Structure formats: C-alpha cells, structure tokens
Amino acid sequence: MRAAIGWAAETGFRRIHLDAAAPEIRPRVLDRSARRDLAATLRRESLGFTGLDLWIPSDHFADPAHADRAHAALLGAVELAADLRALTGGAGAPPVVSVTLPESYAGLPEAMAHADALSMLVEDFGHATDEIGAPAPENAENEAANGGPQPGVPRPGVDTGRLLLRDRPPGKTFARCSKRAATLRLNDADDTGRRPIGAGRLEVHTLIALHATLTPELPIVTDLRGLDNPDRGARAALDHLRDAGLPPLA
C-alpha cells in the first residue's frame, strides 16, 4: 500500500481513494497505531484523502449468510474514513465510502445514521445509480423534489464508464443528480469494456465542463480497475484534466 500511495503521488495525483478491501487497509484489522501510520504516509506524500472503496458483492448485504459481516464492514469503513480524515487534517470535502448496495438492505438506516453522526458520506453505485440513469421525469416538480441530498439516503454513485456500458447518457445523468452526488467517477468505456479516458466513447470535455459549471468543488475520481495498463490509464486521466485547466484528480 505504501508503494501504491507513493506511485500515486509521483504520477501527479493530489488526492487518493483507498481500497478498504486491501489487506493493509481493512478496517477490522487496522488498529489505531496502523491508522496513524497510514495517515502519516498520506501526509508525507502530500496526498489528500477522498474516501474508501468497499466493493463487497451487493447481494452479500441481503444474504443471511453474509449480511452481518457485510454490514459490519460498511460501519467499519465509515469509522476508518472518519479517523483518516481527522488524522490527515480534516480539510476539504467529507470523505466518501463508495459501495454497491441492493434495494433490500435492512441495515441501511443504521449505516446512514452512523455516517451522518460521523459527518461521512456514503455513495451507492447500486440501485441509486439505476434511479438516476432512468428517463427524466415528465415534469419539473418531480425533478426539483430530487434536487438535493436527502437525510438518511446514500448519495447516488455516478460512474461515467458504468453508465456507458449500460447505454445511459453520462452527461445528462450527471447533470440531473449533480446536487446529490458525492464524487464524479470519471471513467471511459467502449463496447469491449472499460478503457483509458479518451480511448472510449466518453465525451470527456463535456463532463469536465459540466463539473466545472455545476459542482466545481466535487471530487473527481478515476478508477483504474479493469484497465490493461493502469499506469497509462492514470496518466491519460491526468492529461485530460490538465488540458482542461483543472487540478489533478484522485
């Protein structure tokens, strides 16, 4: 993990989104001393902390055989995000725990109450993403009702690569839910799967322009999973943001 953090800083990123499933990051095994050490590493590399990915299979949250452990992992990730924010200085937007949830997740009220109490955010790339990617409401009143964040409800996860793979319009989808989003996942894809930014069907400059207009303070995160060459994909993402005159992303 130290090597990955060092690589991110050397490549030119200013912030980082960590993998809560990585052996060195798992909340249930990371004691207070280890958390201080991780925060010190981030400070030493001058990297801000945007949040944690917790890619547990969504059905684990509803399966009786896995639900308790999945729920505990989400609560633990929220606590770890809060600790790392405090230990790294607490500047900027609240850290985000990124997760994919099913509709039938009985522990959601407790998880959201826990996140709210610690001033952390949870973004859901499961059913919430399906809702924002659906056809637009027929009247403006319905649209306004969904305009801002709602207490006890996860923020909708916006992954432009995932939207492309599902034939959803990334620009329109982001514009519709920008007031509720916690991050913008700027990823690209074509008919074969995920691609480096600029090598797929994403209208990169359109998304960057929407972000700059609607949510200039919203963290932009790029996801290197599934790319044949993550290093090349990371540099392509940074190049596109620099060309647009924006600061490096996470």
Question: What's the structural blueprint in terms of helices and strands?
Answer:
Blueprint: H1 2-11, E1 15-19, H2 32-44, E2 48-54, H3 67-88, E3 96-99, H4 108-117, E4 121-124, H5 127-132, H6 140-145, E5 155-156, H7 160-165, H8 170-177, E6 184-185, E7 188-190, E8 193-195, H9 204-214, E9 220-221, H10 230-243
Parallel strand pairs: 1-2, 2-3, 3-4, 4-5, 6-9
Antiparallel strand pairs: 7-8
Folded structure, characterized:
The protein has 250 residues and is α/β, with parallel strands linked by helices. The protein has 2 domains: 1-123, TIM Barrel; 125-250, no CATH class. Helices cover 42% and strands 13% of the residues. It has 10 helices and 9 strands. The strands form 3 sheets. It has a 5-stranded parallel sheet. Strands 6-9 form a two-stranded parallel ribbon. The protein has a two-stranded antiparallel sheet with strand order 7-8. α2 packs across α3 and α8 packs parallel to α9. The longest helix has 22 residues, at 67-88. The protein is globular. The two termini are 16 Å apart.
